[in-house]
Give the backbone structure.
Amino acid sequence: MCIRDRIVSAQKLATNTQFKAYLNNDFNSVTAENDMKMRSIFIGPNNYDFSKGDAIISYAKQNGFRVFGHALIWHSSIPDWLVNFTGTDMAFEELIETYIKETVAHFSQEKIILNGQEISVVAGWDVVNEALNGDGTLRESIFLKVLGENYLETVYKMAEKYDSNADLAYNDYNLCKPKKREGAVKLIKSLQKNGAKINSVGIQAHWQLTSPTLEEIETSILAFSELGVKVMFTELDISVLPNPWELSGAEVTQNFKKFEGDKKMNPFPENLPDSVKEKLAKRYENIFKLFVKHKDKISRVTFWGVTDKFSWLNDWPIKGRTNYPLLFDRNY
Ligand code: XIL
């Protein structure tokens, strides 16, 4: 089944009717942009806030959507109290296990009837998000430091233990670049070899007009599906703005403050010229032709937003720009 997916927030579902109208028309799955991340949920030891996630689940239930959970373990979404944790390694592991248990068990309770079958609203989880460096090695993080280099195996097994029906995914960006793709292939093989359940790989599709190439995308679809996992294109958006990484050469920093307010970096503050609109439309067309070609290997395509107006790419990696990455413009 190919699921088309949009990200949402509990707040927009509660307040924005235009947003809901467009969401309900064309999509059958949603992902929370931030509301189901560790930072939103795990507010203290034994202290969980599921309220925003619950609002999304209840909306999904009423409207016949499924939800893909994003994301249990991500170095960028650790609550401050846990970043500063000073207890023993064992106490840390216990906290992580309890958090995974409480979270997946909580969200697995809500059911929906689809095609005559009762199933969980939450179809699965990005168990680990962005564990890899650009060269394919494991990223330094509190999880690597405290739980050790087999930590992915540990947390995938935990997720399976507490929701054995969920699809378990590994999600990351730049998975169409050779070194990182090879790193992910190695990681998935090692999970499989060690008996950890992994159903799918999420290729974050934060892409540009020309990069990655269709060939690079296709190579990744084939490389991952050969491992027996489904490919999901998650977080699809296509930036039409200058890419600061290219301008800064090898400087791989996310601190592009020096570009804030720079007109060269924000060339379309009023509207997108037709010539660029056409390139964007063609790019989406080519990408979707490729997706259709490989639809037997692709289980889901998620856009990282509904309208350009609320896209995170207006503020990342440079604050205060006007980007046009999604299917719907600022007036829907
Ligand atoms: C982003 C959200 O879109 C922002 O609102 C938030 O401030 C930061 O996170 N990779 C991911 C997503 O896996 O969770 C990120 O979402 C974008 C990059």
User: Anything to note?
Assistant: The chain has twelve helices and twelve strands. The chain has a mean pLDDT of 93. The radius of gyration is 20 Å.
